[in-house]
Structure formats: C-alpha cells, structure tokens
Write a structure and sequence with these properties.
The complex is a heterodimer. By secondary structure, chain A is mainly alpha-helical. Chain A is 46% helix and 3% strand. A two-stranded antiparallel ribbon of chain A has the order 1-2. In chain A, helix 4 packs across helix 7 and helix 6 crosses helix 7. Chain B is mainly alpha-helical. Chain B is built from 16 helices and no strands. In chain B, helix 1 runs antiparallel to helix 13 and helix 1 packs antiparallel against helix 16. Chain B is globular, with a radius of gyration of 21 Å. The mean pLDDT of chain B is 85. Classes of the chains: A mainly alpha, B mainly alpha. Chains A and B meet through helix 1, helix 2, helix 4, strand 1 and strand 2 of A and helix 2, helix 6, helix 7, helix 8 and helix 9 of B.
C-alpha cells in the first residue's frame, strides 16, 4: 500500500506541469527547445557548480545564489568571472567561449522561472513568478 | 525464546558491512572536516587547502555519508536475517548463508570505490545528494534490491521475530530501492529539460530513499529494543507515518514554481509530523534514563538518537511552515538539520546495533564510547547554536542586499563549521573505531 502511494505520487511529480513547461517562458528549454540551455545545464552539473552555488536556495552556500543573477549582472561580467575566477571561486579558463555562453543561457532560463529570494514571508510564502501579476497556478 | 537469548549467528557479510559502514563514516567525517575549513576560514588564510577543490569535497562527503548509511542498514538487515534463521533452526548457528549476501556487499563496495574515484577525478553527477555518476546507480540498486528480495521472501519467518520490525524492513527496502531509482529520473528528457520538474522529481527521490533508510534503521532499533515480538500498531498510525514520509518532498523548494497543489500537499504532510513529534516526546519522557548491565552503553547511544530525533522532527516541522521556511531556507540551519539527523540519529543507531550484534561486552571498561558520545553530542549542539547566528544574518540581509555585502558579516560566524567539525570528527572516529574493533574481533556475536 505504501509502495502504491509512492508510485502514485511519483507519476504525478514526473508528469505534473513544472513551471517551465506550463508557462510560456522566453528561452525556456521545454518551449523553444533551445539546445544551449540544455547544454548549459549539463555543464553546470559536469563542473559541480551546485557544490558552491545554489538555485532556489538549493545547493552550496560558499558562493551566492544564482537564481536571478542575470538581473544583477550582465553577460560580460559573468563571462569574466567564469573565465578568471573571483575570490574563492576558481578559474574555469578551460571552458570555451560557446561553453560559457551555454552556462549563461542556462542561468538566463532559471532567472525567468521565479524570483528568489522572496521579498516577504507573508504575501508570497510559497513563492511567485517573476511577474507578480502572473502568480503560479 | 527471547531475542537476547539467541545464540551467536552473525553472518560474515554483516561483520564486513559494519566495518565498511564504520570506515566510510570516518572517511566522510574527514572529508567533511576539510570542507568545513573552506567554509570557516577566509580564502586569504587558506591557500594551502585551495587545491582540494570544494566541488569535489562536497559531493565526496555526501557520497560517503550515503554509502555509510546504506552499508549500516544492510548490516542490520543481515544481522536480523541471521536471527530469523537462528530462530527457525531452533538456535542452530549460522542458519543463514547465501551467496547473494556477498553479491550485495561487493556491489555496494564497488559502487562506493568507483563513485569516489569518479568524483575525485571530476566525473561526478553534479547533483545534490546524488553525486555519483548515474551509470553506477545499477550497482547500488543491485545491492539494495538483493536485500529487499531476501527480506520479502522470509516475511512469514520474520513475523515470528518481530511483526512490526518485519513490516518496517519490507517498506524500508522498497522505498530505498524506488527512491534511488527515481533520483535518476533526469535520464527522461521531459524531466531533464524542465528545470522545475527535475527539481521536484529529484527531491521526491531523495526524500524517498532517505525515508527508506530511516525506516530500515528504525526497524533495526525496534527489534533491538523489544525482547518480545511486538504486534503491529494500528493501521492509521502507519498511514499517518507513510503520508508524512511520502509527502514532504515539496517543502524543500517552496520558492520554486512547482505546482501549487504539491506545495499544499507537502505543507500538510509536514504538519502531520507533529503527531510523530508528540508521540516521540511522550515516549522520551517515559523512557528510563539508564539501564543496568552490559547494555548500558548501548542504551545511552539509543537515548541520544531519540533526543536527536526530537530535534530533527521538531525542526523539520518548524522549517516546513512557509513563513519560517522563508527565513531559514538556503541558510546554514539546513546543514545543522541534515547533519543532526544523519549523525545524531542514523550513525548512532548503526553503532548501537553493530556493537550489539557483534557482541560488545565491556560495559565497565574504559571505552572510547564514554568520551566519544558526549563529544559528538556537544559538537552537534555547537553546530546548531553556532550556525543559527549566521543563518539569521543571511536571512535578514539577503532580501535587500548583495552577497558581497552580507557575506563579510556572516563569515566570522562560520568558524563554527571547523570548530564543531573537529569535535564531530573526534566523536565519530571514537564511536566508529569501537564498532570497527567489535566487527573485526570474534567476541561471540549475538
């Protein structure tokens, strides 16, 4: 019975509408099929970026959360930091220019999913989308 | 026949697995201690450690912790298998022998060694809590699957030993297997290509295998502490526990745009854990504080595990309240919560079970248990208290200032990482070396 309940939830989780598929997000992987975003996600995992950085607060704490980094920094700055390193962050000079662009495309995709950190615990306790007039679900 | 009256019947793979679990816990603690220096000591003072890159240390630390817990759960499983067959054969020694035991042991060891080598060489998965390369997951599934099938085949026999423990073990192995399987759902394109769905499914998988391992260890504790077979509890209590175990995954990322119904589901499932908290609290208050005789030291381990269970469940419920989650999510308190659970509960249960089954018999001698346990408890408390301040600082500042602004305010407080880390390493080393010694020597296993 417990196993059946688990399987039911797992099916719901795997087929429920995640934010990107449900809503039309410019550059979202599921909608546009932009390979650069998927490649960027692959690089994010391959180089273990999540060990130090977090997305939606999940991941490492050594560096800043990068959910909305594209709103705070421009692409040139990010290119520079990835290639040269910054503070405790090592240099990833081995990454080619297109690879750095894929990583930045992935961060751009994440940026459009939602705002993090939230600004108030009382009005949006469960999180909200980047456009406050278009709340999730 | 009482459990404690059963003659020696500890299968050899169980001894190996207790030793393997102890070694991997020590290795995990060592890597964790080095990683804590990255956190706690500013970069300018820690050049000497910069070549040990954090993106290798963190996943290695997590891999070793997961392997240590699975090895411990498997060791308890084989110990109980030995007891079940001993009971069936009316006390005959070595009632349980199967080549599949060795298959499970070799698969797990191979998985651990190859995964660790891959992570160190920068070939890990890069995913939180499942840092091993996905291609090696079948080895892990093989070891867990063998144990699950073994236990499902002897359920009627296991019932004679402990109905409740038997059902819990069957559920535990099922959830552990399915959780590990689901944690690799990223191989499905429609999961990988959707960032939010990938996150939700990943955390559902993680929550499930962690719940599975917790259930397995708890089952071991149930059998360990009950001299007489205890009947199954009421079904609704099992239902509530299952709802809590299977439904809390969504609270790990309230802030992401996962479907709102999953967030409400997770919230209600998390709040149901209050019932579990109250029952644990009642049980803890009624609990005797000491036991005479040879089991006294082991009982202290389980008493500590029970106290840390209260902390873990209580903090888990609080952290799942959306308005509190807003502040603590993504802060260091989550690390305290996770480490409190893994070390304070899982490690202590494995040590207690291992020492019991391996025939620990020196209650009055000077033992590393005597100093290891207090140091471990104190260090965990230090971690909780010390990391509360930087966590609150980060929570208050991050909504309106940048990382570059608030991190210098937070950094001095992160010294608690290496400070507590030294104590945790010492405590874990003391307890695990005791288990290692017990597993290696033949002291008349129970």
């Amino acid at each position: 019975m417990v196993v059946s309940a688990y399987l039911g939830i797992a099916v719901v989780v795997m087929f429920s509408s995640g934010g990107a598929a449900h809503h039309h997000i410019e550059g979202g992987m599921a909608e546009s099929g932009r390979p650069s975003v998927a490649l960027g996600k692959g690089l994010w995992q391959q180089h273990g970026c999540g060990a130090c950085h977090s997305i939606f607060g999940l991941g490492g704490h050594l560096g800043p959360d990068l959910t909305n980094v594209m709103r705070r920094r421009d692409e040139t700055y990010l290119q520079h930091v990835i290639a040269r390193g910054f503070g405790k962050m090592p240099s990833y000079a081995s990454l080619t220019l297109p690879e750095r662009e894929w990583l930045i495309a992935y961060l751009g995709y994440v940026d459009q999913l939602a705002d993090y950190p939230l600004q108030s615990p009382w009005t949006q306790a469960f999180g909200y989308r980047s456009n406050p007039e278009n709340p999730i679900d | 026949m009482l459990h404690s009256e059963l003659p020696p019947s500890l299968p050899l793979p169980a001894r190996w697995l207790y030793a393997f679990s102890a070694v991997t816990f020590i290795l995990s603690a060592s890597v964790g201690l080095i990683a804590s220096i990255h956190y706690g000591i500013p970069a300018r003072h820690a050049d000497w450690i910069a070549h040990l890159r954090f993106e290798h240390l963190r996943p290695l630390h997590l891999l070793l912790a997961v392997v240590a817990m699975v090895a411990g759960a498997m060791a308890i499983h084989f110990s109980l298998m030995g007891r079940v067959f001993s009971l069936r054969n009316k006390g005959e020694k070595d009632g349980h022998k199967s080549r599949w035991d060795w298959v499970a042991l070799i698969a797990l060891s191979g998985f651990a060694v190859v995964s660790a080598a891959m992570i160190v060489s920068g070939k890990g998965s890069g995913r939180e809590y499942t840092p091993w390369p996905g291609l090696l997951t079948p080895l892990l599934l093989l070891s867990v699957g063998v144990c699950g099938v073994q236990w499902l085949r002897i359920i009627p026999l296991g019932y004679a030993l402990s109905p409740e423990g038997t059902v819990l073990l069957a559920i535990g192995w099922s959830l552990t297997f399915l959780g590990f399987l689901e944690s690799q759902a990223q191989v499905l394109p429609w999961v990988f290509l959707n960032g939010v769905r990938d996150l939700t499914s990943q955390w559902h998988g993680i929550d499930t295998f962690v719940a599975g391992i917790n259930v397995l260890l708890y089952a071991g504790m149930v059998v360990l502490l009950q001299p007489y077979p205890k009947p199954l509890r009421k079904k609704f209590l099992f239902g509530i526990a299952a709802f809590g175990l299977l439904g809390t995954f969504g609270h790990h990322h309230y802030a992401s745009p996962q479907p709102l119904f999953l967030k409400y589901f997770a919230f209600f499932a998390s709040m149901v854990a209050v019932i579990s908290f109250v029952r644990h609290m009642q049980g803890f208050r009624k609990q005797k504080r000491t036991l005479p005789g040879p089991n006294r030291d082991l009982f202290q381990l389980l008493l500590s595990a029970e106290a840390w269970t209260l902390v873990a469940v209580g903090s888990g419920v609080l952290f799942a309240i959306p308005q509190i989650n807003f502040y603590i999510h993504g802060t260091y308190l989550i690390i305290s919560h996770a480490m409190g659970s893994m070390i304070g509960i899982n490690l202590l249960i494995i040590i207690a079970a291992g020492l019991h089954f391996c025939g620990y018999d020196k209650p009055n001698a000077s033992s590393s248990l005597r100093w290891g346990l207090p140091i471990l408890n104190f260090s965990l408390m230090l971690l909780w208290i010390g990391l509360t301040i930087p966590s609150l600082l980060k929570a208050m500042e991050r909504t309106h200032s940048t990382f570059q602004f608030y991190q210098p305010l937070v950094e001095p407080w992160l010294m608690f990482f290496p400070l507590a880390g030294v104590g945790l390493f010492a405590g874990i080393f003391a307890l695990c070396s005791e288990l290692l010694w017990a597993a290696a020597s033949d002291r008349g296993a129970r």
